[in-house]
Amino acid sequence: MKNDAVVVGSGPNGLAAAVTLASHGLGVLVLEAADVPGGGARTEPLTLPGYLHDTCSAIHPMGAASPLFRALPLGRYGLEWLHPPLCLAHPFDDRPAARLHRSVDVVADDLGPDGDAWRGLIGGLAAGWDDVVSGVLGPPLAANPLGLLPWARSLLSADVVAREAFSGSQARGLFAGLAAHSILPLDRAPSAGVGLALAAAGHAGGWPLPRGGAGAITTALVSLLEDLGGRVVTGHRVRSMLDVPPARATVFDLTPGPLARVLGDDAGPSYARALARAPRGPGVFKLDWALSEPIPWRSSACREAGTVHVGGTYEEIAAGERAVWEEREPGSPFVLVSEPTRFDPTRAPGGGHVGWAYCHVPNGSPSDWTARIEAQVERFAPGFRDCIAARSALGPADLEARNANLAGGDIGGGAITIPRLLAGSVPRLDPYATPLPHVFVCSSAVPPGGGVHGMCGFHAARSVLARRFGRRVHRDPARALGPRLGTCDEVA
User: How confident is the prediction for the chain on average, in pLDDT?
Assistant: First the structure.
């Protein structure tokens, strides 16, 4: 089969680009350096035999919300979303845990005097979720400047929005944990937008996990691609353009550092310098546990939640995230925790359990954060350490060694800045194109950025189709997928 397009990297965005191109009848080859596809969406036995851990991402609010994933027949290939009773719990030392429930009213009632503010701020976004998703995961804002208008508040810092909207510690703490997913200081824009979008996603579509682990997303995408005639070749590391077979288009699911090494000066010295200057975000330190029993959370809400934010008050989380950004090490890091086996017993044998956690750290931090992460969990779950049967600890260098896109442990493809939201980590009018007419980028470094949703790949594929194959397709995946998957509207 001839290669109309070669995709380098088989993360969710690379596979999304490949599927979109293959749906238009193009011959597509995907090259993956690792022995298995998936990038940040893989599930492996990192601790004990039979205990299946997600190697990077685990909970997928934007995966379930993704217009592309909803348009693709992934359920036919085994992808099943599991919804815990609660999207999120946020425990405190001296008061009940805050809860992110699918119901806006349940959360508002929990928050007492801040309930009306939550209904107005978050409930309104959830009620107009289709428009929110179009804004968050749609085409780059540089192509649609008027799209910024409904998002004016989202382009502020979490600190500004929290001060304006909330007075109580529960609401402020809950919003701090949501906004901290931006891996930004909470007084830095656009951290508010991340918190608002994730909160609204919880109400509109939940924070689900895939049955069997994040690898189920990859398995479904690969199976669909193969049915469309595409191929995935693993164990093929691309070190330069000489390692890429000839094709009319090459699409890189690579962040700026790895892309710079592959391209060298092929795309010109100015583009090489721009890739080198692309700002990295902080890194993460990740722990996976094989557990003899579930984490003994003090709060019942934590036992019902797919995700637990361990960080305490707004002020504590803000101080920790500020320290990380300034390349200092907080004594009490903000920790994100998930226990998939509470809701998916297929992930461990004989009634065992798996736990997953990470905290934000300075990019490339060589420190071992195991004790600090486990102390934070023990703080809200006394006796937790006694449940650990085995652990895997992956620092920034380990994560980068496993996946070159995670430079210094940066899981977001670069620091989240407003220019990056507009035009990518290397700003261009078409952020998916490069100075080489046949070379494109589809990684999390281009809009709409990090997360397992495939929309960076989808938008990059639209650029490829327009620039290399003369096909201008609709920006809505449900109307843009080719004849092999559905009706294609020839609309830009």
Answer: 94
